[in-house]
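User: Run a structure prediction on this.
Assistant: Running it now.
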Amino acid sequence: MSRDRDYPDVVAGPFEAPPVSFEDRAGRTVEIRPYDGSDAEYEAVVEMYVAFDPADRAQGIPPGSEARIRSWLDGLLEKGSLNVVAWDGETAAGHATLVPDGDTYELAIFVLQAYQEAGIGTRLMRGLLGYGADSGVDRVWLSVERWNKPAIGLYEKLGFGISDAESFEMEMSARIAAGDHTG
């Protein structure tokens, strides 16, 4: 059940919906596209999470073992969430999701360590928010650890504001489309 959150008055965006291809700062051609649900994409995303550096896990996610990753991912994908994946060829380099939470959506984003600081996280977020806005999502929130200044800076740059800063984890929220958005 969602709870009341403060959302900025200003609508963030517009954001380009995927598919989007670009060259990252390391010279790799990366494509952001909606998750298609195929076995091949599912296995590539599982492989990405298995390779995830334990130091990059936040708030207990992604889980550590392959069995727990599969169970967690199955739960995410079955909840009617919106998912986009960053692809370097056939390798999943990042994954971002909007998970329904009442009439709002919780956002989570993960980028493999080898692909961090190359601009992929920013493009992945922009693609997810564009996909969400095109799908009728208008309010998004996330939680981030207070010490994660790079992530907080990215979220602020994309139009997120702090909605709750009273705990160890800070909540941030954004409006990504007008309330009358019909998709």
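Helices lie at 39-50, 66-78, 120-134, 149-157.
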